[in-house]
Design brief:
alpha/beta; Rossmann fold; 6-stranded parallel beta sheet; 11 helices; 6 strands; globular; binds 1,4-dihydronicotinamide adenine dinucleotide
C-alpha cells in the first residue's frame, strides 16, 4: 500500500544481507512510500553480492561500512549526504552478531574478547552511528533513527546468550543518545523490539524453531512478520510519529504482556498425558 508517507525523505539502511533480512524488507517499504535511500553493510557481507538486487529494486547506491570502524562511518555519512545533496532524515540500524553464539560458547563460559566484539557490533555501534551523524550534524530536525531489539533485553531467554546483554545496552544507548539528540536537533531515537523472525541472524540462535513456535502460541496476534516490522519502521521514519523518542517499542503481537496463554497451557497439559 503506497501512500507516500516518506515522500521527500532520505534515509540510510544498515544490515540488508538477503531477502529475509528485516532491513531488506524495510528498504522495499521505504522505497514504496517514496523515500530515497542509501544502502550499507559490512564489506564482507557485500561480497555475497545479494545486495545488488535490492540496490537495483530501490534505485540506491551501496556504500560499504563496517559499523565498528569510525572512518568507514564518516565516509558513509559524507557520501550519503553528497548523494542526497543534503541531510539525512532517517537511519535504520539492523545489525546483530554474536561471536560467542557463533562459536557455541555457553553464556556461563563466554570468551570476553569475543564478548567485547559482540557488544561493539550489536550495541555500541548505535552510539558510533549516532556520534558520527552528531559530529557532522548530518541528520535533519525531526529526523528518526530506529534500531532493532529483542525482548531478551528485559526477560531471560537462556539460549539468546550474550545477545541479551547486547540488546539491553542497545536500548540504553537509544535512550541516552535520544535525550541529547532530541535537545540539540529534535532528532528521535527508538528501538523496535521485534518478534522472533526467520532470518540469518535469527536462525543462529540455538533452538530457534522451538523458540519461534512458543512465541507464536504466546502472542494473541501471533508473531509479527518481517514485512510488518518493515511497515512499523516506515511509520517511525514518517512525520506521523514525530513525538515518539527514547522508547523501546514492542512489535510482537502482544507477546510482551502475556503471562501465559491458553494455547501454551494446553500444549503442556497434552505433554503430561
Ligand atoms: P540478518 O542476518 O539478515 O541481519 C544482520 C545484519 O548485520 C547483516 O546484514 C550483517 O551483515 C550485519 N552486520 C554484522 N556485522 C556487521 C558489521 N560489523 N558492520 C555492519 N553490519 C554488520 O538478520 P535480521 O534478523 O534481519 O537482523 C536485523 C536486526 O534485527 C538485528 O539487530 C537482530 O538482532 C534484530 N532482531 C532479529 C530478530 C529475529 O528473530 N530475526 C528478532 C528481534 C530483533
Amino acid at each position: 500500500m503506497a501512500n507516500n508517507l516518506l515522500q521527500g525523505k532520505r534515509g540510510i539502511i544498515f544490515g540488508a544481507l538477503d531477502e529475509k533480512s528485516i532491513a531488506w524488507k524495510t528498504a522495499l517499504k521505504c522505497h514504496e512510500q517514496g523515500a530515497q535511500l542509501v544502502l550499507t553493510n559490512a564489506p564482507v557481507a557485500l561480497r555475497m553480492g545479494e545486495i545488488n538486487k535490492l540496490a537495483e529494486a530501490v534505485n540506491a547506491p551501496v556504500i560499504p561500512a563496517d559499523v565498528t570502524n569510525m572512518d568507514d562511518l564518516k565516509n558513509l555519512f559524507e557520501q550519503a549526504q553528497a548523494h542526497f545533496g543534503g541531510k539525512i532524515d532517517f537511519v535504520l540500524h539492523s545489525i546483530g552478531m554474536s561471536l560467542n553464539v557463533r562459536k557455541g560458547k555457553h553464556y556461563t563460559e563466554i570468551n570476553y574478547e569475543w564478548n567485547q566484539k559482540s557488544l561493539d557490533i550489536s550495541a555500541m555501534s548505535l552510539h558510533r552511528v549516532l556520534r558520527t551523524a552528531w559530529d557532522m550534524d548530518a541528520i535533519s530536525e525531526w529526523g528518526s533513527v530506529v534500531a532493532l531489539s529483542y525482548i531478551a533485553a528485559q526477560r531471560v531467554f537462556p539460549d539468546y546468550n550474550e545477545m541479551a546483554d547486547a540488546k539491553a545496552l542497545l536500548e540504553s544507548v537509544a535512550r541516552s543518545f535520544g535525550y541529547h539528540y532530541g535537545v540539540r536537533n529534535k532528532v528521535r531515537v527508538n528501538t523496535i523490539s521485534q518478534s522472533p523472525t526467520r532470518t540469518t541472524a535469527g536462525s543462529g540462535v540455538k533452538g530457534f524453531d522451538g523458540f519461534i513456535d512458543y512465541a507464536e502460541k504466546m502472542s494473541p496476534l501471533g508473531n509479527a512478520s518481517a514485512d510488518d516490522c518493515a511497515n512499523y519502521c516506515a511509520f517511525m521514519f514518517s512525520d506521523m510519529s514525530r513525538y515518539i523518542t527514547m522508547q523501546n517499542l514492542f512489535h510482537d503481537g502482544g507477546f510482551s504482556f502475556v503471562g501465559v496463554s491458553e494455547a501454551v497451557v494446553k500444549t503442556i497439559e497434552e505433554g503430561q498425558q
